[in-house]
Amino acid sequence: QGGVGKSTMAEYMVQRAVSKNPAKTVPVIITDKVNTIDDVIKTIESAMTDTGEIALINLTISAKSIREPLDRLNALLRAFTKESNPVLVFDNLETFQPSSV
Fold first, then answer.
1. How many whole angstroms separate alpha carbon 95 and alpha carbon 85?
2. Predicted pLDDT of residue 81
3. Which run of H or E residues covers position 30?
4. DSSP 53
5. Is 29 helix (H, G, I), strand (E, B) or coil?
6. Among 59, 67, 89, 92, which is most exposed with the fewest C-beta within 10 angstroms?
7. Which residues are registered as beta bridge partners of 86?
8. How confident is the model at residue 26 (pLDDT cuts 50, 70, 90)?
9. Is there a contact between 50 and 57 (Cβ–Cβ < 8 Å)?
10. Can you tell me the distance from the alpha carbon of 63 to that of 45, in angstroms, rounded to the nearest whole number?
11. Which residue, among 72, 81, 74, 89, has the nearest Cα to 28 in the 3D structure?
């Protein structure tokens, strides 16, 4: 249900994670605008590229050869967590659920 403070809580948790390790923590916000697993992968790849870490940038390129989306996502997240501290926030996902009539 919307309006109960989930996004505010998520923002607080991200701020808390960043304050613990600002140099390594990378917030990755996945909202209702992200409709498919390919969109999730693109969002994560973008966050990895934005770090400027050559290893992560190279991985986003090499991971494109992995055919299965879940395998690609797994490879990306495993590498991301070795180099950084990604904080994945899934926000407004209740909008994906059909409303009951």
1. 28
2. 93
3. strand 25-30
4. -
5. strand
6. 67
7. 26
8. very high
9. no
10. 10
11. 89
